[in-house]
C-alpha cells in the first residue's frame, strides 16, 4: 500500500486489504471511499470486508464504484459531495488510485486552477492530462466543439512569439498564423535594468500588444489552460478548443514570487524592490537615490533564471551611482548568490571581479534567499557550507533587490510537452519537440542549456521559422541553433562587459575584438545597449528583420 496525498483532505492508493486499515487510521485518516466495483478481479477483497474493518477502527466507509476508464460527471459530483460530508481527512482507493484521483480532480474543477490540480496529481504519480479538458470545463464532459483551427498556432506573444511570427511571415506572407496571449501590453524587458538605474523612463520599455503584433496574424486574446498534442489541440480558459497543424510554444517562464516567504507582501515598500517587474524598476531607482548609508543586499536565486546577469547588473549600476555621489564608502553591499560562481562563463569573471573589488562588494555564494521580513528589514537565507551542511542566516538591510526563483509556467509543467523538470522538451539544435514532430519551442520555456535572454530568442526565432516551414514542405535542409546568448553586463554608467557565448560557454562575439572586446568594459558596448538595441528590438527583431541572426542551414 502506497498512500499518496493529493491535498490536505485526501489521499489515494491502489487496492488495499482489510489489514491495511490499521495503518491508514494511524496515519490520521478518518474515512474511506472505495471506488473499485466488487468482483473486478479474482484477488480483490469485497467492499463489505473493508467496511467492517474500517468501522471497527471508528472510521466511516463509503462505496462509490466506478468502472475503469468511465468516470462520469455524476460520479465526480458525488465524490465532491462525499468530501464535504465525510469526516476528514479521507482515504480513497481503486485498483491503482487513478480513478480516485480522477474523481478528486473533476470534483475540484470549480475550486482550484487547472494547473494546480494537474500538478498535485502528477506529484502523486498520476497523469490526468487526458481529463484536462473536462477539468477546464468545470468538471463536466464538454461538447466536442472546435472554436478555431489554424495552420500554425503560437503560444505566447513575448519577444520569442512575435519574432517567430514575423520571421514566418517574412518567409511565407500568406501563412495562416494565430498567436495566443491574454496580455494587453508587450514589454521590452531587457530595458528594466536601465529603468532601475534612472537611464530609461518606464514607458520606453512598453507598447500595446496590438501595436507590435505583426499584421496578418490572428490574435486570440486568451490564456492556455492545457495542451492536447495527441489531438493537435489546445484547451483555452473557458474550455475553448483551438486546433493546429503545427504548434510553436514560447510563453516565457514564471517568476515565483511566492517562492520566497514574505516577499510578495513587502515588494514595493520597506526598501524591497526588483527590476524583474515593470512597476518596481522605478522604485529601485528611488531607493538607490535615497540611500546614503547602510546595508544593500542584492540576491540571485538558483538557475535557471531569465537573464542570469540581471541581478548583478542592478548591483553594479547602484554602486556606480553611490560612488558618483560620494556615499559608496558608507554603504555595505552584499551579493547573495544561490550559486557558486559570479558568472557562468569564466572568461568574463576577471573583468567583473575588478568592479566587485572597486565597489567593495561582499560576495556571498551558496546563499539562497528564502524569506523576507519587510517591516523588520531582515532577509533570511539558506547558506550551504563547504561540507554540504545548511544553515539559516538572517541579514539586515536598508535596500533589498530581490530576484525570485523561476520555473516553467504552470500549464507547461503539467503538460505532455514537459520534461521531468517541467520545461518543454526540445532538440537543442532544431528546437523541435523530441516526441511531437509538429511542435517547436523557443525562448525561456525550453530545456535547452543556453542563457534565457532576448538575444537568445532573437537567434532562435529564425531557426524555428525555417525548420517549421521545412517540415511543412518535406525539406531536410534544416537550420541549427548553436546556443547563442548575450548578456550586456552594465558594470558602470557608460560601460558594459558584453558577454556573448554559445552552448558549453564557448565565446561567440558578434564584433571583432578591435571594435568591442567582450572581456573588457566598453563604452561602445554601452552605446549598443542604450541606443542601438532598443530599436533593433522594436523595429528589427519584432518585424522579422534578422539582422545578425540569419540562420545557418545544413546541407540536408
UniProtKB/TrEMBL annotation:
InterPro entries attached to this UniProt entry: BLH_phosphatase-like, FAD/NAD-bd_sf, FAD/NAD-binding_dom, Prot-tyrosine_phosphatase-like, Sulphide_quinone_reductase
Location of the Beta-lactamase hydrolase-like protein phosphatase-like domain: 2-110
Cofactor annotation: FAD
Pfam families in alphabetical order: BLH_phosphatase, Pyr_redox_2
SUPFAM superfamilies assigned to the protein according to its UniProt record, in alphabetical order: (Phosphotyrosine protein) phosphatases II, FAD/NAD(P)-binding domain
Single Gene Ontology MF annotation: quinone binding
Domain of life: Bacteria
The name this protein goes by in its record: TIGR01244 family sulfur transferase
Provenance organism: Stenotrophomonas maltophilia
